[in-house]
Design a protein that fits this description.
Helices cover about 50% and strands about 10% of the residues. The protein is of the alpha/beta class. The longest helix is centred in the last third of the chain and has 22 residues.
Length: about 280
C-alpha cells in the first residue's frame, strides 16, 4: 500500500515553467529571521536507487525534524487514502467510456494485476493508474521518502506533513475525471509502452540533479492530466506551503523534502521563498 501511495504522490511532480537554477537537489534556507539553517530537498518518489548522498545525510543530522508533503507516519494514512480514492457524485468509469473501451480496460487490468476494472469502477482513474507503477520500471521500487524516514526514525525525530492526505487526494477532484479516464484508456491500449519510456526519461533526468531539465522533461509530458493542470498540481500547493515552511523553519531547524518539480520555476518553492526575503542556496 505504501508503494502505491508513494506512486500517487509522484503524480503531483509533473509540469511547471522553467527558471534557471544551479544543479542541485539539496538547498539550504537561511536569513529573514531563521536562527539555524533548514534544508529543502527535491525527491523522486518512486525510483530504482534512493541512496542518500553525504550532503543529504549531513543536512538530516543538523536538523531536528522531517517534513514531507504529508505525514507518512500517520496511522490513519491507509484509511484516509482509501476514502480519498473514490470519485465524487457517484461517478463511474463505466459511464464515461465506450463499452468497447471499458472492455479493453478490463482485459488489461486482469492481465497486469489479476483483477477486473469493475472492482475499481468508482475510483479516480489517475490513482488507479498508479497501481501499475511496478510494471513501468525494471527494478525493485525504492523511495527517497522511505529512506529519509528511516534516518529520521534512527535519530529518534518526528515526521510531519505540509498537507494532509485528504488535501492531496482532493487535488484529483479538480482535474476532470473524463481526462483521467482518457489517459487510463491510452495506457491500456498501448500496454503502457509510452508510460514506460516517459518514466524512464524522468528518472534519468532526475539523476542529473538539474531542476531546469527536470521541469523541461515534465513539461514535455503528453499526458493531459499534467500538461494542462500545473496550477492545480504544483503552483497552488507551492503557495500554500510557503507560510507553513516559514513558520516551521523559524521555530525549528527542519529538513523539508518534496517532489523535485515543486522546487524549480518562478512559482516553485525556491523562488517563492526568495521573494519572501530568504536566502535559498544550492548545496553541492
Amino acid at each position: 500500500m505504501k508503494k502505491i501511495l508513494f506512486a500517487i504522490i509522484a503524480l503531483f511532480t509533473i509540469g511547471a515553467s522553467a527558471q534557471k537554477l544551479d544543479k542541485s537537489l539539496l538547498w539550504k534556507i537561511t536569513g529573514n529571521g531563521i536562527k539555524q539553517p533548514s534544508y529543502l530537498f527535491g525527491t523522486m518518489h518512486i525510483t530504482c536507487d534512493a541512496t542518500l548522498d553525504e550532503n543529504v545525510l549531513t543536512a538530516l543530522d543538523s536538523t531536528r525534524q522531517l517534513y514531507l508533503e504529508m505525514d507518512m507516519d500517520d496511522p490513519a494514512l491507509k484509511s484516509e487514502m482509501m476514502k480519498g480514492m473514490m470519485m465524487k457524485d457517484g461517478k463511474k468509469i463505466s459511464t464515461m467510456v465506450k463499452e468497447e473501451d471499458f472492455a479493453v480496460l478490463d482485459t488489461f487490468f486482469k492481465k497486469e494485476l489479476g483483477v477486473s476494472v469493475k472492482l475499481m469502477d468508482n475510483l479516480k482513474p489517475a490513482l488507479i493508474s498508479m497501481s501499475l507503477i511496478a510494471k513501468m520500471i525494471d527494478c525493485p521500487l525504492q523511495s527517497y521518502e522511505e529512506e529519509l524516514m528511516k534516518i529520521t526514525h534512527e535519530q529518534k525525530e518526528e515526521v510531519y506533513g505540509l498537507e494532509t492526505i485528504e488535501e492531496q487526494m482532493a487535488v484529483f477532484d479538480q482535474v476532470p475525471y473524463e481526462v483521467q479516464v482518457e489517459e487510463l484508456v491510452k495506457t491500456a491500449k498501448d500496454n503502457m509502452e509510452h508510460d514506460k519510456v516517459e518514466f524512464q526519461k524522468v528518472m534519468e533526468v532526475y539523476n542529473s540533479k538539474d531542476l531546469n531539465e527536470i521541469m523541461k522533461a515534465m513539461n514535455e509530458s503528453e499526458n493531459k492530466i499534467y500538461g494542462d493542470n500545473d496550477d492545480i498540481l504544483l503552483t497552488n500547493r507551492n503557495k500554500n506551503w510557503i507560510p507553513k515552511i516559514e513558520e516551521i523553519a523559524k521555530t525549528t531547524p527542519t529538513f523539508f523534502a518534496v517532489g523535485a518539480a515543486h522546487l524549480g520555476g518562478k512559482e516553485g518553492v525556491i523562488m517563492l521563498l526568495r521573494k519572501k526575503g530568504y536566502t535559498v542556496e544550492a548545496v553541492k
